[in-house]
Amino acid sequence: MLKVGRKLHPRSLLTLVATGYLLALLPLLLLIWHDYSTLSRFSNMVEEGSTKVVEDTRRAIQLTNLSEELERTLRRYAVLEDATLLTRFHQQLASYRELLVLHRNSVPVTGLYHAIEQDLSWLEGTQDLKGAKERADSDHFASLNEHHQQLEEATNAWVDTLVSGAKVRINTLQHELWWMSGVVGISTTLFSLLFIYLTVRPIRQIESRILSLGAGIEPEREPVDGPAELVELGERLSWLHDRLQELEQQKYRFLRHVSHELKTPLACLREGADLLSERVAGPLTSDQYEICGMLTDNSRRLQSLIERLLDFNRLSQQESFERTPQSLLQQFMALLETYRLHLDAKGMRVELPTEDLLVLGEPYRLGLILDNLFSNAVSYGAEQGTIWLRCRREGARVVVEVANEGTPIPAADRERIFEPFEQGNSRRQGLLKGSGIGLSIARESARSLGGELTWAEDAHADVCFRLILDA
């Protein structure tokens, strides 16, 4: 059943479903019972009314026929002087009285019955042939026939009254059925809405927690307000969130430890390769010098990957920072200085903005975004091509674009390249290969600064990335 307290708590999902169906079904059962009893009353009323109407009408006709029979029998007795006819006359008169008593109890026309009683008293005075002859020639039979005609009319009027009353009662029953159906419909709807609310509310709470779990947001810790099974499911989701957080922290610690542990031997390898390349340990053959170059290049690549992993780990930790005004032109100039050799090697040209704008950001994260975008432009850009560094103000925000000539990014890859460890189908120019997390780090950094990084269409460049930040 349901626990009654400050809130309505079904003990189990099965109890909730069963109770909901019973509550929705109960008004329907009441309606069926009410309709059955009403129809039974209606059927009995129609049956009784029909029987009464037929009996009253038939009795009125029989009374009229008997009055005519009495007149004929009396006249025949007066002419034929047969004593058996007098006996038959009195038998018919007794039968007439019995029918009249029944009719008087059924059809209320008191004044007419009094006149007929006087007629009957006049007929009962016939005890011998002399009295029969006196009454046979009397005009009193015309009055008797008139009284019977009036009785038939009164009976028909009474039947019409019964029919009208039956119609009124039928209309009353119809209104009662409509009223009861409306009450049952409203009750069923209310119970159904209550059942839906009690079912949907905990499911919505669980859905919200699942969405929070997928978004990496702390879900609500309050118990799910619903059946025991859903409450337990909510608790398991909270446990799953805690477990995922624990595994996430273990992953970050592993990345941090591995990255730092790799940097020390990597530095020794780079130093040794540099010493060999500088022929400090003695002269080298051309093959040996080429091998030293390969060691130097790959150690640099490994160092770049380690630094990217450290950046990714640092952003994932969601460290607190303060946004301050940063000069975009200074950031662009620093990029040119860092990538000067790569630009010269590929013969690439860089166009800078004509004015310097300030954006709200944190130096490390802003530099990380622009470095990743510019690095991709240099690596994937066409030789002898152009790189455009642009910035413009749009309302309270600043739009920064890094665009280059080269192989366009296919439409299917324009969102996938922002996922961690995902790369497009375009080949990177040069010996160093990408790690697949540069654009992911750039987008996360942009969002941490309150901005957004997207791919954009450009009329002059083949590839363009657009960064929007607060001014």
From TrEMBL:
Q: Where in the cell is it found?
A: Membrane
Q: Does the keyword Cell division apply?
A: no
Q: Which residues form the Histidine kinase domain?
A: 257-471
Cellular component GO terms held in the UniProt record: plasma membrane
- Give its E.C. classification number: 2.7.13.3
Q: Which Pfam families does the entry mention?
A: HATPase_c, HisKA
Reaction equations catalysed? ATP + protein L-histidine = ADP + protein N-phospho-L-histidine
Q: What is this protein called?
A: histidine kinase
Question: Per the UniProt entry, what species is this protein from, by scientific name?
Answer: Aeromonas simiae
The organism's lineage is: Bacteria, Pseudomonadati, Pseudomonadota, Gammaproteobacteria, Aeromonadales
CDD domains noted in UniProt: HisKA
